[in-house]
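It is worth pausing here to work through a concrete case rather than discussing structure prediction in the abstract. The textbook approach is simple: state the sequence, then state the predicted structure, then interpret. We follow exactly that order.
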Amino acid sequence: KCCLACDEEGSTCVLKFFHNCNTSAADEAKRWNEIWGIDAWTTKLLGENALVMPFARTLTKAEVRGHESEILEGINMSDEDEGKEEINFPISEINFVDLGFLIRQAIKDMAAKGFVHDDLYSGDRLRWHHVGLIKLENKWKCIFIDLSDVRDHVASGDAEEEMLNIFATRLRTRG
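Step two, the predicted structure:
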């Protein structure tokens, strides 16, 4: 279970509590740091282990519906192409090709570290609530959240191909 919180300075963060999970709060905090280079840590709150992580603006199926081909176009951009990292909200004003480009960058970043996110889809649907946008160093970046179900020590090329296939297959079927 997750809930929105803020620190003493008013910066937004998310608390994730672990009940009967395959992953510990410490394991997931380590993955945030290792995969995304984002500081996350553990604490005890009300006797429960909790992960403290930054807030990422996640997507919904309703927000991306009808834009699957544009997102796929951005994902399929060649490495020489450059997408924009200037994402504006509300989501209806996002250039979805640029969003696809940011998703491709997240796939490449995660794969380069030897990880595959195994919870990006369920059945035949993409789990957009695991695709997040976060502003780091004044640039929007896409990250995949809920790092409790990931595989590590995967060859980077294999990891990238697997995650690209997840998005390509699901977006073609209006995922």
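Step three, interpretation. The mean pLDDT is 87. The radius of gyration is 16 Å.
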